[in-house]
Design brief:
By secondary structure, the chain is an alpha/beta fold.
Length: 302
């Protein structure tokens, strides 16, 4: 299974780790420590050294309660980072929902558009829609995510009813629209949108029944990393991100990523790349041993 993107055909036979690069002063996860271009690029290089397969760069926080960022501000944050990041030799994804930003980063050579709105954000007056930007590009990759309502209200009025069937129906429709515009199936992945308008129980249901989403026929991408649901499940107190509050979600984040991969996810979007890569190596070695009966490489047995 290959995910076709602007410059790379990404082999999804083994799970891919997408490292998160927040170029935002108000990120829920890191308190804005990578907000400058210099720090963001240094973080890109660090994530690659830790084993990231691709990078996801975002200039706007979409945490619960976040207000939309003006277009010019997002462009100022993202474009300088993308301009340099495309030289790093790995697929570069940009987390944005604005058609103007999509066009600008694709013009710079970005490989993937990762959109929490699944290309539904209204087009600017007289401008191109997100659908047209993506569909008119010859081969960029795209990730379509499910979100209930929008960031300012999504956790005030979370979804009701069977979350899995509703998410599946939405994603099937979103992919059909894009496919109808001529976008090849190989360019599309889908994301159930953990935490975007869902309760803790609904997020857990999406993970437990994740294989039901595979019937849509597209690779799954999941972003459990440092989500508040994990803190609620693990009984971790909430501490502001500026005080390192999401670091105590590392163990639960890695556990969720492993469970997601075990249930069919092909790309995990994570903050803690090194730890996730190490955990996936253990999982992969165990899986390969079970399938081939070859022994696990010997070493320190302590």
């Amino acid at each position: 299974m290959l995910w076709q993107t602007t410059r790379f055909a990404i082999d999804l036979k083994r799970p891919q780790v997408m490292g998160i690069v927040n170029v935002t002063p108000d990120s829920f996860s890191d308190g804005g420590i990578h907000a400058s271009t210099l720090h963001a690029l240094a973080h890109c290089e660090q994530l690659l050294a830790h084993g990231a397969n691709l990078l996801d760069i975002g200039g706007e926080s979409t945490r619960p309660g976040a207000t939309p960022l003006p277009l010019d501000d997002e462009l100022k944050r993202v474009l300088p980072v993308v301009r340099e990041a495309v030289k790093l030799g790995v697929p570069i994804s940009v987390d944005t929902y604005k058609p103007q930003v999509m066009q600008a980063v694709l013009d710079l050579g970005a490989d993937i558009i990762n959109d929490i709105w699944a290309l539904r954000w209204p087009a600017p007056s007289g401008g191109a829609t997100a659908h047209s930007v993506v569909s008119q590009h010859p081969n960029c990759g795209v990730c379509l995510m499910h979100m209930h309502l929008e960031p300012q209200t999504m956790q005030l009025s979370p979804m009701e009813g069977d979350v899995v069937s509703q998410v599946l129906l939405f994603l099937e429709h979103a992919t059909q629209v894009l496919h109808g515009l001529g976008v090849d199936k190989s360019r599309i992945t889908i994301d159930p949108g953990i935490g975007f308008g869902k309760t803790v129980a609904q997020n857990c249901s999406l993970l437990a029944r994740q294989r039901e989403l595979l019937v849509a026929g597209y690779p799954l991408l999941a972003g459990w990393s440092r989500k508040s649901s994990l803190a609620a499940i693990a009984g971790v107190a909430s501490i502001p991100a500026s005080a390192g509050g999401t670091q105590d979600r590392l163990i639960s984040s890695v556990a969720a990523a492993l469970l997601a991969v075990e249930r069919g996810v092909r790309i995990v979007r994570v903050h803690d790349v090194r730890e996730t890569v190490q955990a996936l190596k253990v999982w992969s070695a165990t899986l390969n041993t079970l399938e081939s009966s070859d022994p696990i490489p010997t070493g320190d047995t302590t």
